[in-house]
User: Fold these one by one.
Assistant:
Number 1:
Amino acid sequence: MIITRQKPMKEILEMLSPYRGVALLGCGGCVAFYQTGGAKQTKEMAEKLREAGVSVVALGIANRQCYLCEEREVAGLSDAERIRKVARELEGFSELENAEAVLSLACGVGVQNLANILDIPVLPAQNTLFMGRRRVEGDFDLEQCVGCGDCILAFTGGICPVTRCAKSLMNGPCGGVFNGMCEVSKSRVVEHAVPCAWIEIYNKLKKQGRVDELRRIRPPKDFTKAANMRKVAWGVQK
Amino acid sequence: MKEVYSNFMRSLLSSEFTISGEIDPPKDANRTAVEEQVRHLKEHVVAANVTDNPIGDVIMNTLAPCVIMQELGLEAIYQATCRDRNRIALQSDIIGAAALGIKNVLALTGDHPKMGNHPQAKPVFDLDSVLLTQVLRRLREGENMAGEKLEHPPKIHIGVGLSPGVEPLEPEIIKLEKKIEAGAEFVQTQCIYDEKVLERLKEATSHLDVPILPGIAPLRSVGMAKFMLANVPGISIPEEMMKKLESSSNLTETAIDIAAELISAVKDYGFPGVHIMPVGMDKYVGEMIARSGVR
């Protein structure tokens, strides 16, 4: 899922300060599952905003803000027609026309999707962190995929070293393993202990009787395949 | 017959006990600080490493001290890490270093920048130590990573690192095997204080046909020993050694004695040489070797 954290209220209020009427849109996807931007959090946000004197004119929840409607559905429509379409399709959003801006509680993908449809400003209530999952123990979200475009999970026991090794190493652990933990755990700027991904990979492969997978030299990563890493890509062909 | 480019490799291939040293580049442009360390080491070691911004602190780069060292007549071992340079920069740096006369390169992963004094820096790690080793060999064989031919390949010998004290050891040894397959010709290890680790290293690498130089660094104080234990992965320090430091009335003397004992142990375990990291005690390296009785 997409992991997010709500922005501090101070930052949100500053963002909203130029606009008189604000529409709030939550999302029923990842942010609802992880309780950062679902129905409950959107209602709570509305209350907080009203307390701070912000005029909330509409409050809706999109099933998935990252898939609000297909681009071709709104391609030929005028700005006003687009607003009406979104207002019509989302429960509680009928007053969207009276909003000067939308505060979206979705991830960055949802925000951009909505911003692509509407001409009024769509503002993010969240900081979008990464693709990952919530760890069973404790309130801790774990990054699992960086979308490198060339998946190697087949030979790493289903544990991604590109994402979870602090150095994205391809050929086994570095000398910085400290009692199974990554050396960055000792850094003053890292807030929590980080397990060594390669030791986790080794343990998993050992359990599966596949340690020999580690014996093959894996080639350098080809960053022409990595959309987010080559920085020039903005999409891929279907 | 293997082509030999460096005195260091010549020594490793001979029957003599090979001793390499190491210098710490200063954090500023102090050439004298480099020259002083070189002068202290020159008569005692066959070559000396120059570190590549250990723990990611900003200090003088690797190349400049290597060149200064060789001008003063001591052969350099250029440490190259993957932390700050992508495959383009790594290759071009090595080509340039070879043009300036560098003949030995130690290929390392490098510490994460989060460990040093610039934790905000973007970590690079485009290659890892296995892949860097492979690239260095390919360059020496006359081809860069793009497959372009080099008319004047860098004539370098390639070394790698090893942390013999880490747990579990198996993945570390598997990685070493891959480094050897990739082209590693010598190994210098993380510092060792415990004979048990030497024994473990000997056992775990007995199937490998590559010279391994265990790393030795003097323990200058109880504080340093405690710091190493807490912060350097895979370090163990025997209780007896700690007691020696605690009861020492002359820490310099004790540090020299401990280092000498370790150097001598390295030879007793049948290693072909030792890598001495003086960590500020470069002035006493000659004395450490003399007291060890390895020569």
Number 2:
Amino acid sequence: MRMMRQCLGATAAIMLAACNLDLQNPNQPTEGQVTSSPDGVIALATGLQGRFAQSYGNYAYMAGLVTDEFASTTAALISISDAEQGSVPPGTGIAENVFNSIYRTVRTADDLLNGANALAGQFDAGTRSGLRALAFALKAESLGEALQSYQQIPINTFGQTAPTYVARAVALPVVRELLDSAEAEIAATPPSTFFNNNILTPGVNLPNVIHLLRARYARMANDDATALAAANAVGRTGPSALSLLTFPSPAVNFYANVTGGTNGVSPRRQWRLTMEAGDQRFTWFVVPSATATGRVGALLDLWNRYANPQSPLPVYFPDEALLIKAEALVNGGQIVPAQAVIDSVRTDCTGGRGIDDPKACLPPLAAGQTAATLLDEIYRQRRYELLGTGLRWEDARRRNHIFGPVAAPGVPNEGQRCWLPYALGDRNANSNVPPDPAESTSFPSGCTY
Amino acid sequence: MTLALVRRAAVFCALTIVSPLLLAAQQQATSTVSGHVTDASVGRGLPDVQVLITGTRIGAVTGPNGEFTLTGVPIGARSITVRRIGYEPVVRPVTVVLGSTATADVALRVSAVNLSEVVVTGTGIATEKRKVGTNIATVDSALISRAQATTVDQAMQGKIPGAQITQNSGSPGGGGISVRLRGVNSFISGSDPLYIIDGVIVNNESGQLADLGTRANPQNRLADLNPDDIEHIEVIRGAAAAALYGSRANNGVVQIFTKRGTSGKPRFTSTTRWGTSQLRAQQPFNFYPFDVNGLPITRFNYQDDIFHRAPSWEQNVTVEGGSDQTRYFMSGNFGNEDGIMRSTASRRTGARVNLQQQLSPTLVANVTSNYVTTNNQLQAFGEQNDYGIMGSLFFAPTNVDFRPINGVYPLPPALGTNPLLAIARIRNPQTIERFIGSTKLSWTPLSKFLVDYTIGIDNTGFEQRQFVPRNAVLGTAPLATGRSQSVFENNRVVNQDAVTSYDWGSLGSAEMRTTAGANYTSQRVRITQATANGLAPVGDLVSAGSVFSAAQTDVELRTLGFYGQHELSFGDKLFLSGGVRWDASSTFAPSERWQAFPKLSASYVLVDNRAGSLNNLRLRSALGWAGSQPGILNAYSQFITFTQLPFAGRPGFVNDVTFGNPNLRNERAREWELGADAGFLGGRVAAEATYYDRLVSDLLFFRPLPTSTGFSRQFYPIGTMSNKGLELLLKTTNVDAPNFQWTSTMTYAHNKNLVESLTIQDFQSAGGYPNRIRAGEPAGVFYGSYAARDCVTGALLTDSLGRYRRSNQTADMGATLAIREALSHGTCNDSLNAVIGDPNPKWTGSFLNEFTLGKKIHLRALLDGVFGNKIMNLSTRAQNAGIASNSKSYERELLPYGDPRKLPPGWNARTQGIFQYWIEDGTFVKLRELSASYTVDWPGVRRYFRDGVDLTLSGRNLAVWTNYSGYDPEINLFGTNAGGLQSVQTTAADRGFDFGGYPIPRVWQLSARVTF
């Protein structure tokens, strides 16, 4: 018996020593491997920009459908032609994508912040500040896109098992604080050359993006002073005035990816036809068509430059800064300077400020404008200058221009609905998701926040 | 101190390996025992009988005519124990004298009940059945060889109560077969039991490396094993019996033993088979010679072009023999089988050497080695609708002339490809190169103490190529530009087993035995894939492409376990045993890794070989726990991982949206069973009955995570599920006259599956199909749209044209809920979906009859049935889709008004959305096997072949009695890919879908077997 026990013991000892049960996964890196090395954290920064491009695309796509910007092409899924008529039932894939992709971007931004902090000693100060500013800015814009699509949004999500939702009054200050942090970061320590050349997407100017976003959300908070200051800080000339997300092959520009196939959308022809005579901005966005119609009969134009899969996508259009500035000036009672700013957008023509953005080539406004006529003009300019950026939806919301769903082939007018239903992907696992907001039944209406 | 002990023990163990060499020098005097074992009633020699010198490991198995030789038997008064499945064992004294061969001829009597049969599965060490508290099914070589089946699992169909063995497809080379023992037990590990061949844990994956129908099941890897090599199979069906296999045994264990060879001069056996397969019955299609406008139109029956009568051929040669110290069995096998779908075929070439060498009186080595090459030429079916032939058949309107014009094959208008083009030009060759081998050392230093050590390896190299030429599918790039793919997989399983047992002998009225063992298994799967699109007009390798992509996967799973067992017996009547397995797998989180799986078993023999009407009666009961592990696909689910997201040409990482579970642990099944075995009327009637109750807890699946966290799901324990059932087996010897014998075997199994609880919302188990996991329902129930009925009368609600209305649909029933409820006379149609059917059978059963006329003619017929299950006929639904419009019911829409068979326009379009309409009764009874054998032993023949020539004419799948309207009620869209690589989500619960399946052929075979 002793012999047997010994033999058994030896066998057990040999077997235990021979087989290590703590295996590593060679197929995918673990959280620990990525967040504990500078290379991994830098790759996170690239992943964040990739996710941002995706979530921004999803948001702008959906906002375009439920306003008067986009309609489905013939091969599109029924949920897309429903959305263009203002109908978005809970669980609709394209609406879920908005929420899910935004919060994936937020998660990656949080991962990057944590990584940059944990490895603080391994990055030079400028690189660390660049990483942090990038994470703050893209998290802010993602949350901002969320609060322009949903009545309430979760703002604390990292490591939470059931994130709670808050109203815009709570969420918007959080977005602005994040942007202030981003600005403070680069003001204190400018991003290093290494960050700008090797981490930031080529073609993007981070300080300008941060200034523009600060102006955008200050405007949303009716903080005219900050909006004016931030808009003034946005560079207007030279290559740095245009920040572009680039898509070298085999990557594909978001809009090119959705030009054809089952998620295809195109700008409504109405967008071009309602332009002021002589406005040339349509040539930047679309190829005019007299025949293109959509899945449920909407009249369409065809995409112009976005149809090229490698075409870059602007992070923002530089003239948005001018239009925010003009709005702040009007609100401050400075009518004449405001009109001058608007005219600089209207008269932007070939050559212009030396950047490749939509050019109206219109004459300046007539004299004798009032605050009211200028505000109308600002909204009109925003509509044609900022197609496909998602901003149209918020403009409709803030002007109480929600005109309700319009059945095809009728043409919708500005916003068709206030909000998207909350994502089932969150609702199914999170008891803190509020009930879907009720949409108004009499129009035009505003939205409750 | 501990180290010193380990060192001392290691030295001792090393000595024990060397010591046989020393012992060999001082062998005691031995001699030889030989003899002949016959069937007492027929007088014919019995092959595959186990003959053992009682109390030792000296043994042999009889040859084809019942002869055996035992060598190395110590001289003196000994006894031999003679055992064979289906016969009563005999113990016969024999005196062994130095220098002369002792003779012992034994005649065995047929006995339907046999409690002395020895089993090893689940018991750690060879144990008589009477001592085991669970029911262990055994299938012997005769049953296997008479089935004339291509694969082992095919041969087991209808032989084991409680095993639902389903041939999911009719592909050549066996068709993908899934085995489900006592219902669905897991959603992640498939339904497959653990397969062990000669101590080697083998890979039975059924996933394909290229898209041959995403979840289709053309073949599972058990098909590489030649059924003619098998000596017997033991099947244990659940946790109570399988606790000693620990965290992999939840689905049961199937242990296969190959032939060992018999001592004596070399004996050659040659078996040749010629076969032919054909489609059992064509499906009806729309052959109405007018179109929707009433204009004449030509229609085609593509089935004539797709299916043909296919030949098969197989040659098997075995040689066995042995000397004093050595026994060997060698076999060579070559077979080719064409599929009934043109351009499909399977070819298997294999060789085996099994060797047993007595190294010393106390040490025996057993070596098995099996090398197989399987070559398949397959075509896609099932869900594959771009280039799959069955999908193309069901989705193409019947008015397309697919014949090539100027060498160009026309494509169908909407979906699928041209089946003639697929047959002529699309190629999916597979090459499987496989080695399975084991070495086992059995050491018996004392008659009461033994140690066995086994090391086994199963190494499968699997290459799948796919060639889809350019312009072979509808649509645009990339597939339309052609695709060439080459995927290599290496799947290697290595296991080591050590078991030791000590027999304490009698202690008063009790006897005791203690067994302890250890097991280590490592499985590694490596896959490399190269794909090219944009193919040149000539050339079908990847290098003919212009756009390339590649992928690589490397997965390893390790399992380590230790077990101990103690057995107590009282007066050869009451047997008690208890054991525990302590098990760890690399898949699970370190904190949860070590799990204990205990078991208890009791057996009480009330009546033992008594004369009279009740000859035997035994009561048994057992309780045990077992687990299951995620498969290769989810092997690393405990890790929180990142995934690549390159952007702007730079490498990037983002969090994987599947969140790792750092507390991952195994599923756990608790099972108890209670049963009785009885023999009546002098062994002419035997009955076995078993009731079992199993509860699986901590079922693993993906639970949804709030997407606001940036994640979407996590592998997590999500609920509990039970299986309760009854298994009956009845064997009768109806006639036992000298020149006529008639025996019958009946099996019945009833299983009730229930998802007891879920901690998440109910969910679709197979992505995209209405199988649902829902608390309070059996796993995999169909949950989908239904036709509205009047809530008061129950009559179907139809519209003004007589078409069905889908419940709660605006278009079908009215714009508001109030209108719909008024139409329904109630609220019974307010939901969009309901449970509309259950794919799980109410019961399964089989009925086998065997007749022996004289000594030369043997007839057998096996009926096998599945009862009370539902099938969703998506094939016919595809036929009714607008783009296909090729069904008989669509034909009725085309008939002129006034024809009584005329269906209103839009009838078929309406049924597309009502899934309930496609549910059919899946009950069937199949004439699974039918065979007639005749031994030609005319003197002229015997001059060349000592035992004559055995001729067998056999058929498989000859007739099916069913109300099911599709090709075959047995085929299933999904195989058992759950957890396999390269497969979309599928679970063991996903049954009952007929969607473009490869029909199971009717097979006739003629075989000739000679011995010389």
